[in-house]
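Supplementary Methods, section 5.1.

A reviewer requested that the exact input to the structure prediction be made available. We therefore reproduce it here, unchanged from the version used in the analyses.
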Amino acid sequence: MEDKKAVDARPSCLSRREFCSTALGASLMAMVPPGVRSGAWAAGSDAPEKKEVRIGFIPLTDCASVVMASVMKFDEKYGIKIIPTKEASWASVRDKLVNGELDAAHVLYGLIYGVQLGVGGPKKDMNVLMALNNNGQAITLSNQLKDKGAIDGASLAKLVARKEREYTFAQTFPTGTHAMWLYYWLAAQGINPLKDVKTITVPPPQMVANMRVGNMDGYCVGEPWNQRAIVDKIGFTAVTTQDIWTDHPEKVLGATAEFAAKYPNTARAMICAILEASRWIDASAANRSKTAETVAAKSFVNTDVDVIRSRMIGQYENGLGKSWSDKNLMKFYNDGQVNFPYLSDGMWFLTQHRRWGLLKQDVDYLAVAKAINQTELYKQAAAQVGVPVPKSDFRTARLIDGVVWDGKDPKKYAASFKVRA
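The structure derived from this sequence is encoded token-by-token as follows.
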């Protein structure tokens, strides 16, 4: 079934002649032993210009596809060697991408867009090569808030409205995904994240330690740091991000536009290798479990396997006595739907940057997204790996407040929110 979908996807990015030639080449290559096949690919005119690539990551469950592409040697199949490089903060990832210390990175969607426009830091032309995951983040509130009766959005809004003290919430980077999920959720409860509470920036692996010593009342971060707070009995999950926006965009494979232009074959090979890893992770619960064991290691996420594995396989508890199996768990592939760099996804982050005053004026939302998201390069890689691609560069979603995002009028959408900067 997968092969048929993959073939159906190819004509959209290849002429008939190119498609027939590609199909013939693929059928011939299928007869070649895998070891020889990868060598043949790497030795052709499309050989990667740069053989060794440093891909930065932050210790989070969703770095898994980058890690597994290296550990399981999917990279070798495409003539490259991925060196996963552990970083301490998103600011560090940004700086090392910009100065060339990293070739690419597992990175926040909104961070790439912020750098493109010079929001809150250096300005440099950037590219999103592919999306790495959907879902799998959450908002954690402290047990101290629970003791005051704040266990969900509505009860938190009542507590904040009483103004007994200033409440502090942490996100991981000002233009990043976690800041936008936190702000969106608070605003949906009638809480203005810039006026009614204090917000601070804390690197993901430091969230739990900072909550433990009382530096914040809540935070938004990726797994496993929400589950870790429950295991350590310092906090609970108030909402998952898949409940804010089901199958939302999250981390991407980001690089500078300069890197992708100078090393297009290497960029394509990275996408291919990580697509293979993504497909493998999502193929079975056993593969997800194996992935959890791998990324839990000290050199990657550095936490207990069980803390990663539970939510990785969709087994959730909220720390308040509720347990459930979440069909909208962290997804790495989902028949290729996860990985396509939809223009509408990138544009959404720009609308939120505008909403919260990070962008001082409207931009040409679509033009910015087209400059950043490398849809054609992605389609080439997807065709090679046999991954289906969607028919449209846009997708539609209804978020937690009932508002629909479809990318059709981003300026109007950005201005439509009552709670804003």
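DSSP finds 21 helices and 14 strands in the chain. These observations are discussed further in the main text.
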